[in-house]
């Protein structure tokens, strides 16, 4: 967990730095990320899966050059899903063979760049892409290692927008109707491709392991069908990411070693039953590594009690730095971190400064009844999909990512300025 404590005045300290000092030095809003927590989580995943498996951190959750260096040092691999993420990974020195390229509509340029760089694998998402990647590889005189992403038909218990294994959505090739088997048939015929495995990602923010078990069962079923038809045993399977984290005290996440044990056991068991060599397993956690390592620090600007309803607490950011509440009805908690208060709690809603009534950061929260302008409040578990999905709605510059470690803070992604925004406006 983050190394968080409170001093005798109620001021919260994280990674040895107090939040008032952070706000003074870096301004608000700011994402405050605890480096040792990030490294510990990355290491826990790495250790849990051991030498016979690979952990690919999903860069979409949050990616910066510092993050890439930490991952490299901690022995993780990296999943990227765009040219921009690939560029960030390469520029920070991640060896290309430890990078996987994802995406349901990779551009020709992205594919070409990835193959030239020598990425360890490209995950193929459609029949057209199988041919496209094969042609590009061949034209570059290369044979690209690839996996085929399939949809196994699992209904993951999560928000519709982040569930990805049922059939009626854009990712992957359905196992149903023999489509995945047909994709394998085509990929095996193409000289530009070396088919190394099958990929399945069932969704995100999932707590129930049964979806992964069904997915593993079906992926192994496909491996067996491939062996029976082609006499080929594919050496790898990737079971994706999607492990849930605690946003509020109601969530009860699994630990990496429990997940590793469950996944390894089921794959081994299924393979033994099918008399297959157990493939090398890989996983792609994003949120489970970076999510809990950061909180967003906001300053309260206005406090507006609405009689008989609740109190609206406006902060200096909002949906531009955390779209998840508006987009997925996500739940967050919030705490006053710059002082203590004995005032009775009030039912509050933490809202942003944007011109939209859906601009909500924390929908229902109890905060001290004496909350006032100038107070600092923190929203935990904003490390994943907050900075990476941040926008400039209302021309609000995006907040910095400030890292705390060993009693000091440093900026790894600086705050955007109005000049940054104006630089793009060339009309
Ligand atoms: N692998 C693949 C192929 C994925 O598509 C994703 C997430 C991951 C791994 C990582 O999933 P994680 O372990 O972070 O749950 N913006 C949404 C989440 C979308 C995730 C998309 N793919 C959110 O804020 O909840």
From TrEMBL:
Q: Which reaction does it catalyse?
A: meso-2,6-diaminopimelate + H(+) = L-lysine + CO2
Which positions make up the signal peptide? none
| Record-linked SUPFAM superfamilies | Alanine racemase C-terminal domain-like, PLP-binding barrel
Q: Top EC class per UniProt?
A: lyase
Query: Which residues constitute the catalytic centre?
Result: 355
Query: Which chain regions cross the lipid bilayer?
Result: none
Superkingdom as given in the UniProt entry: Bacteria
Its GO biological process terms?
lysine biosynthetic process via diaminopimelate
Needed cofactors: pyridoxal 5'-phosphate
Q: Which UniProt keywords apply?
A: Amino-acid biosynthesis, Decarboxylase, Lyase, Lysine biosynthesis, Pyridoxal phosphate
**Where does the chain bind substrate?**
287, 324, 328, 356, 385
Q: Is Transmembrane helix included in the keywords of this UniProt record?
A: no
| Binding-site positions, pyridoxal 5'-phosphate | 242, 284-287, 385
Which residues does the UniProt record annotate as the domain Orn/DAP/Arg decarboxylase 2 C-terminal?
295-383
Gene Ontology MF annotations: diaminopimelate decarboxylase activity; pyridoxal phosphate binding
EC number(s) per UniProt? 4.1.1.20
Alphabetical list of InterPro entries matching this protein = Ala_racemase/Decarboxylase_C, DAP_deCOOHase_LysA, De-COase2_C, De-COase2_CS, De-COase2_N, De-COase2_pyr-phos_BS, Orn/DAP/Arg_de-COase, PLP-binding_barrel
Q: Which PROSITE patterns match?
A: ODR_DC_2_1 (PS00878), ODR_DC_2_2 (PS00879)
Q: Name one Pfam family in it.
A: Orn_Arg_deC_N
Domain (Orn/DAP/Arg decarboxylase 2 N-terminal): give its ranges: 37-291
Q: In which pathway does it act?
A: Amino-acid biosynthesis; L-lysine biosynthesis via DAP pathway; L-lysine from DL-2,6-diaminopimelate: step 1/1
* Function field: Specifically catalyzes the decarboxylation of meso-diaminopimelate (meso-DAP) to L-lysine.
Name the family the entry cites. Answer: Belongs to the Orn/Lys/Arg decarboxylase class-II family. LysA subfamily.
Assembly mode: Homodimer.
> Protein name, please?
Diaminopimelate decarboxylase
Q: Where is the organism placed in the taxonomic lineage, from the top?
A: Bacteria, Bacillati, Actinomycetota, Actinomycetes, Kitasatosporales
Gene name per UniProt: lysA
């Amino acid at each position: 967990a983050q190394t968080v404590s409170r001093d005798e005045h109620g001021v919260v300290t994280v990674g040895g730095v107090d939040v008032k000092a952070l706000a003074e030095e870096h301004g608000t809003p700011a994402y405050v990320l605890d480096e040792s927590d990030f490294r510990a989580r990355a290491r826990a995943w790495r250790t849990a899966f051991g030498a016979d498996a690979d952990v690919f951190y999903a860069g979409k959750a949050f990616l910066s050059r510092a993050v890439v260096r930490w991952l490299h040092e901690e022995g993780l691999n990296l999943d990227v899903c765009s040219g921009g993420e690939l560029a960030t990974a390469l520029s920070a020195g991640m060896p290309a063979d430890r990078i996987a390229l994802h995406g349901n509509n990779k551009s020709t340029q992205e594919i070409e760049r990835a193959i030239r760089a020598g990425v360890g694998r490209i995950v193929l998402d459609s029949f057209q892409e199988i041919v496209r990647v094969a042609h590009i590889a061949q034209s570059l005189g290369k044979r690209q290692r690839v996996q085929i992403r399939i949809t196994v038909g699992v209904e993951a218990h999560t928000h519709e927008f982040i569930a990805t294994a049922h059939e009626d959505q854009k990712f992957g090739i359905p196992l149903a109707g023999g489509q995945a088997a047909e994709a394998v048939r085509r990929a095996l015929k193409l000289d530009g491709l070396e088919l190394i495995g099958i990929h399945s990602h069932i969704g995100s923010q999932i707590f129930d392991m049964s979806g992964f078990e069904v997915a593993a069962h079906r992926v192994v079923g496909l491996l067996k069908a491939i062996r029976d038809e082609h006499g080929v045993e594919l050496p790898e399977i990737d079971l994706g990411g999607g492990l849930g984290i605690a946003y509020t005290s109601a969530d009860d996440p699994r630990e990496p070693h429990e997940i590793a044990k469950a996944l390894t056991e089921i794959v081994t068991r299924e393979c033994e039953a099918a008399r297959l060599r157990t493939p090398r397993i890989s996983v792609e956690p994003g949120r489970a590594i970076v999510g809990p390592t950061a909180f967003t620090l906001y300053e309260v600007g206005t406090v507006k009690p609405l009689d008989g309803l609740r109190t609206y607490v406006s902060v200096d950011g909002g949906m531009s730095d955390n779209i998840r509440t508006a987009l997925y009805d996500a739940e967050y908690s919030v705490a006053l971190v710059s002082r203590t208060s004995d005032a009775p709690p009030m039912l509050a809603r933490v809202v942003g400064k944007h011109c939209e009534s859906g601009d909500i950061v924390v929908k229902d929260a109890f905060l001290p009844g004496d909350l006032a302008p100038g107070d600092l409040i923190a929203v935990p578990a904003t490390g994943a999909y907050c900075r990476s999905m941040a926008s400039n709605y209302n021309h609000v510059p995006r907040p910095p990512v400030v890292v705390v470690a060993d009693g000091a803070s440093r900026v790894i992604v600086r705050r955007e300025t109005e000049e940054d925004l104006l630089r793009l406006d060339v009309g």
